[in-house]
Design a protein that fits this description.
Layout: H1 2-24, E1 29-34, H2 43-50, H3 63-73, E2 79-87, E3 91-98, E4 103-107, E5 113-117, E6 127-128, E7 138-145, H4 152-160
Parallel strand pairs: 1-3, 4-7
Antiparallel strand pairs: 2-3, 4-5, 5-6
Helix pairs in contact: 2-3
């Protein structure tokens, strides 16, 4: 009979511990840390795109899914998630790098389009040449891009920069 009361008491204590500590590990804040001051993105959009919910359990956080959601929200690779950190017991920090265009490469269709891209050639959206602010971008001449930046010319250009 004594063992029965001990078993019930231990069971109740386990349930109480799960309830109490379960609330401790609920996400209460999500911070976004930028590599440098952002120009075209804001913290609220990144938190929304990550789909990390306040009040969800920190142990159920899926970093890959959150990073993929942010990448999908910025289709031109404007934002790169460097890492997502869990700070126990209830905080999440998203480390983000904003890519900014520094180069303009002609698009190889003979038209009026170019591709403003970052130093790592990760930005790939076409733009009209007339829409580019050439005071802030380096114009790359003598080479153009059609399908990929993965050519020897662009690899040498990246090394030179």
């Amino acid at each position: 009979m004594k063992n029965k009361y001990i078993t019930i008491t231990v069971g109740i204590l386990i349930v109480i511990a799960i309830v109490v500590f379960g609330n401790v590990f609920l996400i209460k804040s999500i911070d976004v840390v930028f590599e440098r001051k952002p120009l075209n993105v804001n913290e609220a959009n990144i938190v929304e795109a990550s789909k990390i919910a306040i009040g969800s359990n920190i142990f159920s956080l899926d970093e890959k899914s959150a990073a993929a959601g942010i990448a999908d929200f910025y289709p031109n690779n404007t934002v790169y998630v460097q890492s997502i950190e869990r700070v126990f017991p209830n905080k999440v920090i998203i480390y983000v790098k904003e890519r900014t265009p520094v180069l303009s490469v002609a698009y190889d269709d003979g038209g009026e389009e170019c591709i403003p891209t970052d130093i790592d050639f990760q930005m790939t959206r076409k733009a009209l040449i007339a829409d580019i602010d050439f005071d802030k971008i380096i114009i790359v001449s003598g080479v153009s891009v059609l399908n990929t930046f993965n050519t020897s010319e662009f690899l040498r250009l990246k090394e030179g920069i």
